[in-house]
Amino acid sequence: MDDMVLKKEKLSEWSNELSGYKLIAPSKEDDVVIFKETANLNMASLDYANSVKPPKEVFFPQTQELFRFEKTPEVKVSEGKKQTEKVLLFGVRPCDARSLLILDKLFYWDSEDPFYRQARDNTVIVGLACTSPHHNCYCTSVGGKPYSNEGLDVLMTDLGDRFFVEVITKKGEEVIRRPNELFLTATSEDKTLRDEIWEKAESEITKHVDVEGVHDKLGELFDSQYWEKKAQTCVGCGICSFLCPTCHCFDITDEDCGTCGRRIRTWDTCMIPEYTVHASGYNPRPGKKNRLKNRVFHKFRYFPDRFDVIACVGCGRCISKCPVGIDIVETLKEVKEQEEVKD
Amino acid sequence: MSNENLYLPHLATITEIREEATGERGIKTFKVKINDDEVRNNFVHKPGQCAMLSVFGVGESIISISSPPTWKNFLEFTIMRVGNVTSALHMMSVGDVIGIRGPYGNGFPMDEFKGKNCIFIGAGVGIAPLRSVYQYVLGPEHRKEFGDVLLIYGARTPADLAYKREFEEIDKRDDVDLQMCIDWKFGPQGMIDEDAAEGWPKIKMSCPAETEIPEGCNHWTCFVPQLVEVAAPSPENAVALTCGPPIAIKFVVQNLEKLGFSDSQVYTTLENRMKCGIGKCGRCNIGEIYVCKDGPVFSRAQIKSMFQEF
Asked: Rounded distance, CA B39 to CA B36, Å?
């Protein structure tokens, strides 16, 4: 499909055409941008570097009911209604779209997680290229671009009064049909302007780290004192993992109301001791140093070893939101400078 | 693409409960029958695999299946009372309904063990996962596929030994060398130079291999690793499977090394906290290994190659 443009004033009309879809878009309230259901895409906030919470929760909600149970008069289990509603997720940044390809690896390997699969299959993702990256953004260091279309069904670029529209997948074609009064063929001027915006955005990314060699270096530093030093200020709040678009760990617990209840899964974090403690009280990762190390290793060594991709997209949320200023980019730079620990 | 809810357990009924050991961390064996005929017939496990057991309203716990796949129509779980779910299970009665999903994990590589002499070394509740293997090997369906069997098992006191009646039966067989030990006298009181109980002569701790063996005696006062030294199995054409507390495994493995066992001849199981059992929830990792999927069974060679964080 040829590249197109969509006038911003036509967002509303396009929304009306999407009547079969639940629309989720970035929404700004009190200066906080989050992804929320909206009646019309013309309500979406377009003025944001990125959302505070990543859109992963559309596919992997913070709380997910797995099933319900009854205990009396006899034990019964029952599944809730399947979510079959189609969703159009608008305004996803390229880093967060790439994170879904990483989550796919985890949720689809060996056996498919049915809840995640269903949400992925039912959702069309319309991305919005970054025009002014945040100072903590570092997507270009981990294989991304502010205008990457990986993981997106449609990529849009804000050209001021209009969007430059590129349909990437068949799913994307389902929401942007042509010929159409809304989506007009892009001109070569549109394309030139898009390229300028992309180039400018990329040049505005100031945070960089060369991750080449980090994988092997980490292998040499498993027993390094560095982790103890690094973890000294960590408060173990887990915000780095809760807000990480590629973090996927979850807990499973029962909510019991006496005669019945439900089993739920909730986001969990490897930064707290309860995450790994055995019933016996033994904990294989007893200290903050063990846990912080595990998180860094997981992203840059374990996950690549298992799934051939670094589990980080450079969104910078863990840097922006860490209450004590632990910076993953600085950590990686320091890792590269550490002396190897020999037996 | 599958839309099957992997987290939805099957209902199963407890048909028998046997008390194996009492005390604060008591051990019970639960015989469980999956309610649905089709599900029950399709639930085929390998020795060493695990299942996720549910007590609805309390939660789930991953438990090794302690019956062999050759015992049809039911599963057994030998469970120590340690955490929330296992405590709730210990409160349950025959006829109560629990949830079960699985089987999970890799299990022991039984095909690789074929034609080999099998040495089983269990300490404490570590005997539970091993039971699914030695009962598989000793069963009439598969006995001929394996060589000599040496079964070493130790607990703190005679009362702490699980599967008592079963071991009496095994002891009568001439195709198994059964060696058992108790060690409670070596507990807080240190090395007491006497037998822990009548009929359980002590093994010379300073040099176990020099212990004089009374005719027909196979019950001892010692720790499991010392009993390995006394039994001194040959590594030739053999595999050794060991489960138990980390400290016991550590010294068992050392002693097997002394006897000439290579790292690829020694197998053990690892455990970690688990929630999903299917390689998604994240917490059971040791490096890039997921214990729930890649384990719980690992050779000594595999374990040595891991980051030592377990």
From this structure: 5
